[in-house]
Amino acid sequence: MSIQQRIMQSRAARRGGARGVAPASNGSTSTYFGEKTPTKSDDRPAMPRVRMRDRRHRGVNPRPPFCCALDKICRGRHAVPRDRFADESAPLRAFIPIGSAMKHSRTAKRVAVTGVAMTSIALLAACGSGGGAPAADGELDLSPLQISAEQEAELTALYDAAMESGNNEITVYAGHHDEFREIYTQFEERFPGLTIVPETLVGAELQTALEAERDTGQHNVDVISNPNADRYAEQGFSEEFKPATYVSPEWADGRIAQDQFEDPAGFYHSPWALLFSSGYNTETMDEADLPANWPDFADPKYADQVTFMTPSTPGGMQTVLSILLQSDLVDEDWLRTVAAQSRIVAQDQLALQSVSSGEYGIDLTSAATSIRKAVNDGAPVDLHMLENPVVATEKWMLAANAPSSDGGKLFLSYLFTYEAQEQALVTGNFPLNQHEDLESPYGWPAIEEIDFVHLPSQSTMREEIDNNQDLFQEITAS
Q1: pTM (2 d.p.)
Q2: What φ, ψ does residue 174 adopt, rounded to 5°?
Q3: Which UniProt keywords apply (predicted)?
């Protein structure tokens, strides 16, 4: 069965009541951020391709951790089974930027279908109350988003257009969905009648699916989340769009290269960053005895206590080490020393499992999101914040010729709101423009307050990763 047939079958199953997440084709949990971005399969030329914050009081109670908040889904409104994400694993992610100049694409015009949409609005307005229920007069309640009146008007217009179009399913292609599931649910509650359809596609599968949709004209995807967003944008798979709620993080100037948080051509934007530091077993290790910084890991006293994923294959470790090596915080000799006194495993998930079981005390590099998931699953682990952790960014964009273009625009705009930021913090992500009234539930500082290693441009990262391949192979083999 082809990838496109699988996607179409999945969508048909959902319409019949069976909703699930398409499994990733690659079992490695590190594939997403560290994917090997494919090249185009033919020789066709690439297709052309406010700082405003509302100070109003939110007026709602803080949400519980998402493992509990999932029980608050309105079944009658959405008819979403509890196991919508049951097949989803929670990968650690790494970042490998690949891309070049952007080219323009345009979305095809659609014919609006209003009958079903208006009926849906009427039925949904009568659904049970809750944090995401529309107001008594049928209007949306957007006050929890903490956005300006102008932004509320724009989001309301997008919602109305999405409902009137009849295309009420918003399909998201991403390499993972687990940490976004509560954001999807809250979006559906905030905008009744719209449904997020998660599809797990990455690397060669994603490339093949996008090419097939373009060749056949049968477009399925509305939103794409991928660290190599520029690679797909330059092929004409995305449409230029700036979310109504997006504000460029001014503090990031000189600390994060611009193309890591927003596309200079306007095709993708990043709502939050992923932070990499060290994970440790809280039962076998005292945090006061852990390394304070990256160079400390070369100390002989940490021999046989550290494990990490091989950097010879795409993944979080490859990304982190490439960022560190180009920063001059460490050098090749440091890496050889650390590798010689540590255990190197095939996958980042295996490294965290070894720490969780107590076999090893320290995971050299752990993503904050993966640590939080492990803690929620009962593992005796925690994140150790080093002096100079590493960050990478999530990149989201509107797909070209999206069937639910207005719904996709609405969802992308939702990602930068107070409500979405709050949930991003719960899962361990770091909003790039964190609302001043929000704090990490784990006591972590806002990202602009962290002295992380400079995140270089996509081109610099590509070059650094390529230059380090022989070294990475060497330490893995030894």
Answers
A1: 0.76
A2: -155, 165
A3: Signal
